[in-house]
Amino acid sequence: MNHDHYSSDYICNILRTVHTIAVVGASPNDSRPSHGVMGFLLGKGYRVIPVNPGHAGRTILGQRVYARLADIEEPIDMVDVFRAASQFGSVVDEVLALRPLPAAIWGQFSVRDDAAAARAEAAGIQVVMDRCPVTEFPQLMRRAS
C-alpha cells in the first residue's frame, strides 16, 4: 500500500468499523497529544484502553492503564501509536502476537515505518501512518451526511 496517501474510503472504513482502541503511549498529562486524542475518541463513543508501562494500574480519563498490549483481556480493534517512529516496529511485533489480531494499526503524526507496516499488512492488518484520527474524523462525518 502507498502510505503517502489514503483514500477517504480507507480512513472512513477504519473509523466506522473499529470499536475498541488501545492507545500505546497514552499520557495522564492533559497537555500531551495522546491525552487529547484519548478524550476525543472517548467522546465519539469508542472504547479506549490506555497502554503505558509507567502508569500501569492507574487510570487515564477514567480508563485503566495497561503496561503492554498483551495484558489487555479483551479483543482490540485498533492500536493507536504515540511512540517514536523508531519504536513503531516493536509495537507492530507486539500487535502481531495478539490473538485475535486487531483490524488496524494507526501511527500518529511523524510515526512511520514502511517495513513494519508491510509486516502488519502481510498479516491482514490495515495500517495508517503519520495521521491523527482527530483530524481524519471529519471525513467520516462528511460521508455520513
Q: Which structural class should the secondary elements be placed in?
A: alpha/beta
Distance between the termini: 28 Å
Give, in spatial order, the strands making up the sheet with the most strands.
2-1-5-6-7
* CATH topology call: Rossmann fold
SSE pattern, N- to C-terminal: HEHEEEEHEHEH
The profile of the biggest β sheet is: 5 strands, parallel
Shape verdict: globular
Q: In CATH, what is the class? A: Alpha Beta
* Helical residues, percent: 25-40%
Number of domains: 1
> How much of the polypeptide forms β-strand, as a percent range?
15-25%
Mean pLDDT: 95
Radius of gyration: 14 Å
> What's the architecture in CATH terms?
3-Layer(aba) Sandwich
- Count of discrete alpha- or pi-helical segments spanning 4 or more residues: 5
Q: Would you count the extended β strands for me?
A: 7
Features:
Rossmann fold, 145 residues, 7 strands, alpha/beta, 5-stranded parallel β-sheet
Walkthrough of the structure:
There is one protein chain. The protein is α/β, with parallel strands linked by helices and 145 residues long. It is built from 5 helices and 7 strands, in the order αβαββββαβαβα. A 5-stranded parallel sheet has the order 2-1-5-6-7, sandwiched between helices. The longest helix is centred in the last third of the chain and has 12 residues, at 133-144. The mean pLDDT is 95.
